């Protein structure tokens, strides 16, 4: 029997993306976002939702660019910290001892130490309500070579990305592989 | 050293959401989406991106409503199948022996057997490129009581949702909890 629960319990595995941006003054900033996902294959786009109150919102509105930095499990406390502290009160890169690399492709910094980076140019902004969606076209994707397998694909288990469960505020790792898509469903055809 | 890889490798843990909709003729349909995520807290909204070629796109354009049905690991082959087969060629509910329940809140069906359901009304549609985003306001969220813990929160490990890794086409389970958000980052303050 199904029971209605609060709709604020968005019980979905969410990504843990650390968004890199420059302020008007050129100071690199980081902020963690969970309200995000892939939103288009052609062009390759992702959507990141931010509240207007955040410095990252202001920065991206100004610069029309951002990076997505995927933290591995190793950087869980850094990812959590940049989601709690405002860039208006702290220089988060310095505080964490992380290195801001200036993207050569978009007007935004990325985190040298994190294993995977997407460099994005803003195509659209859609105000939904408390949050505004930034639709970013992925212009390049960079990964530490040690996380590529022999076929040039991402070795996801080695990468060890975080997954976020809202409402219960829990970070999880990815579990084991349980099936291949476009394959395991064939038995129903 | 970071290396550029194809931007089509959207290496993010993506949700596995089975979208329920009615056709013009009132036939319930299901389709799996991975290009989706939460996009706003107030109102509580999610974004689901679909290609125009899909029946689900046509259905949602017509009915302005859909459901999100979260499959547990138990339903992995069903979730995969409805992502491969078009509702134009098969009655997927019948083929899978799943039960279509008519939502009393929105003009869409949901899957009785799946553990968790969001009932959504379309607030906006944004055409990005190959994909169009449907922004759905979550009007209700229903869960099987057995997946609620003593405090009324979702027992995520019991729910056992799937996570999708695009490009390598892999379904994973959720791994163990590795940290509490707004907590584990405090040491950097």
The count of strands of chain A amounts to 13
The overall pLDDT of chain A, averaged over residues, is 94
Q: How much beta of chain A, percentage-wise?
A: 35-45%
The general outline of chain A is: globular
Which residues of chain A sit in consecutive blocks of at least 5 with pLDDT less than 50? none
Q: Gyration radius of chain A, to the nearest Å? A: 17 Å
Could you spell the SSE succession of chain A in H and E letters? EEEEEEHEHHEEEEHEE
N-to-C CA distance of chain A: 29 Å
The number of helices of chain A is: 4
Tell me roughly what share of residues is in helical segments of chain A.
10-25%
What report would you give on this structure?
The structure is a homodimer of 189-residue chains. Chain A is mostly beta strands and 189 residues long. The first copy, chain A, has four helices and 13 strands. Chain A has helices at residues 55-63, 76-84, 92-96, 156-159; strands spanning 2-5, 14-15, 17-22, 28-33, 36-40, 45-51, 65-70, 100-102, 109-111, 116-127, 131-144, 162-165, 170-180. In chain A, the strands form three sheets. In chain A, strands 4-3-7-10-11-6-5 form a seven-stranded antiparallel sheet. In chain A, a hairpin with a 3-residue loop joins strand 10 (116-127) and strand 11 (131-144). Chain A is globular and about 55 Å long.
